[in-house]
Amino acid sequence: MSQIRLSDQAYAGIVEIIKSEDLEVGARLPSEAKLAETFGVSRAIVREALVRLASDGITEARRGAGSFVKSRPSERLAAFMPMSELSTTLGSYEVRFVLEAEAARLAATRRTAQEMAHVEEGMALLREALLSSEPAHAEDMDLHRRIAAATGNPAFIQAFDALWPDVEKIMRAGVDISRSRPPEVVETMLREHEVIVAAIRAQDPEGAALAMRWHLWEGRRRLMP
Amino acid sequence: MSQIRLSDQAYAGIVEIIKSEDLEVGARLPSEAKLAETFGVSRAIVREALVRLASDGITEARRGAGSFVKSRPSERLAAFMPMSELSTTLGSYEVRFVLEAEAARLAATRRTAQEMAHVEEGMALLREALLSSEPAHAEDMDLHRRIAAATGNPAFIQAFDALWPDVEKIMRAGVDISRSRPPEVVETMLREHEVIVAAIRAQDPEGAALAMRWHLWEGRRRLMP
DNA sequence: CGCAGTAAACCTGTCCAACAGGTTCAACCG
DNA sequence: CGGTTGAACCTGTTGGACAGGTTTACTGCG
């Protein structure tokens, strides 16, 4: 389903370099040619990754000089950072907190049988993806989107879709896709989603809203240890 | 300062094509080669733009098939809307209820002086427009948007912008422009907004959230008695 | 005439070699 | 010692090339 492009790996690889080599803000990255050689890909691929990194506000390229760290992925996640400097990506969690919690509540209140089946299907897909140790971002989003759809209110899907690209960015930046997740993390993520789905199935509005809030809170905590 | 790269122009150009040619979600974009020829740049530049477009959730590339519109930038769903028009538009109020109430709360909590001035300015513009007996939808939206901006969290503005086209539609549909509003309605709308702004000024989070909820509740009641 | 199968045309993903023009830094000259 | 210059290095961009997936249209068979 989600085909992995080399530039995705390069993106993750560069983020990994910034983190592992502990490059400070303003530090210079290896040149495009060196990165290409390191990852065993062409310079064009590295460039596509760098363009996205720059568009995500993580790096900055200066012609003739090189690419530089603009803000470290982990630091943008810091809770104490003033909101004015907070990236759109992290801020999106703040919106999801109220938006998706309300969606879960409404979904539990007035879901139809068909919508419930749709949610269950999304849960099954996520379970499968998580257990296969693949990066399950797409399936994760899909389940959340199905829950938003179960409110029967298209406006929720619209607001959700407007937010998701940013959520995805932070996921890509924060998660090392090269390393497989430990089993207990997979199980935790599964259980969190299952509790939400169960509450919607049982038509328990407060339970669904609480479970969703808890899941988002834990998710954000996972991204900034 | 910020040097303009060709890929930035290509990015803007592709967005322009989606808007001007009115490409629906799922529609296919011209091929990379054609886009390159159109913009007078190389295919690599177009690719860098497309990679960013995809990362922003606007397009989606399928190998061998082409690139497709995934969601239309900003004015999603603005022009053409499915049948369930009324329910969609009214449904947006449900989202605004949680979204804007939270925005008002956060704005009251952590607004800067500059953001507050921005909000006051929006209030002044709305007051002027309302007293001149013109339909003040644009000014109304503008004030709400400034409040969302005062959270310091760009994600709120994004979610807000995704919703607004629907809200505007129902406003236009529900209000009879030919008849001028009675003075007491104008005064009520002014007072509701002023209470919200005052609470944000006083840095009273709960008051701001409550006032916003009340305003939205009344607004919906005004539209469908 | 209808349909299945296949081949051609087209498309994205990736690589390579090359050049233009900006930046850095150290050696050299006054 | 200070300033200038030049070489080395870097990003920005190009054109061509090939692999492999998708779409389309045509061909030949039933």
From TrEMBL, chains A, B:
Residues 4-72 form the HTH gntR-type domain. SMART domains: FCD, HTH_GNTR. It comes from the Bacteria. One of its GO terms (molecular function) is DNA binding. InterPro entries: GntR_C, TF_FadR/GntR_C, Tscrpt_reg_HTH_GntR, WH-like_DNA-bd_sf, WH_DNA-bd_sf. Coiled coil: none annotated. Keywords: DNA-binding, Transcription, Transcription regulation. The keyword Transcription regulation applies. Gene3D superfamilies: GntR ligand-binding domain-like, Winged helix-like DNA-binding domain superfamily/Winged helix DNA-binding domain. This is GntR family transcriptional regulator.
